[in-house]
Structures are given as C-alpha cells and as structure tokens.
C-alpha cells in the first residue's frame, strides 16, 4: 500500500483546511469554491453538484420552454389555421389571442430562466410563479394542440421541482 497523498482516503469535505484551497489528494482548487470537493471556502459550507445542477437544469429548461412558447405564439399569430378546436370548448379564445398570450409568457419565462442561470434569487421566485401560469395556460390550450401543451406542462413540473429543491446559495455568483 502506497503512502502517497493520492492513495490516502479522505473525507467528503477534503483534507485541506478551510481557506487553504486544497482538497483530498493534494489538488489545488481554483477560486473561492473548491469544485473537486464541493467545499465553499468563502462561506465555509458544503455545496453539492446536484444543487447547482438543478438550477442549471431549471434555468435551461425555462429558456427552452420560453422559446417554445414564443414560437407557438408566432405560429398562432401568423399561421392560425394550424390550430383547430371544436366548437364547444369552455376556454375558447380567438387563436390570435392565444398567440399573444404564448408570445408574452414565452418571453417572460425565458428572461426569468436567464436570471436563474445568473444566480438571481428573484429569478427563482418568479420562475416558480411563471411555471404555474404556464401550466395553467397550456392546460387551457390543450384542445388546440394537445401534445405540445402536455409537453410544456411536463417541463413546467420539472422546473418547479428543480427551483424548489435546490439550495438557496447553490448558483449564487
């Protein structure tokens, strides 16, 4: 058995002291957060890749979902014959109205997703609210384009889960 630092077992927090920039195995960390061990030297707390990854996931899905809704809004505005609905639907609006609704929600969701990716706390709070609004809007839009609406609703569920389960300081820059 070797006695080199690389072969020595270490704890999950690394063998370096807080603020030293080293981790188990003798690796030097770059910057205030040591990415190899998940130890944040600036705050003295543990960070998890899952916590940061959930916010990156949520922000990315919000941007993609916002672009999807924006495109659905453009289709409803310029090619409204793509969406067809039966005559007896409770939430029946003109397709042009649905186009404007999707266009506006899409832009706001994409902007909130960008805020989440930059570590803004308000982006997470607004993101949860917008995901709920997006889910309700797409629920009412199901008769016009069912598969599309169900896909966006499913993405919104994952966004809410990711935004609510991630640590408050996970992506703060």
UniProtKB/TrEMBL annotation:
It holds the Pfam family DUF7144. Residues 55-167 form the DUF7144 domain. Residues 1-15 have a biased composition (Low complexity). Residues 1-44 are annotated as: Disordered. Keywords: Membrane, Transmembrane, Transmembrane helix. Residues 16-29 have a biased composition (Gly residues). The keyword Membrane applies. The chain crosses the membrane at residues 54-78, 98-118, 148-166. This is DUF7144 domain-containing protein.
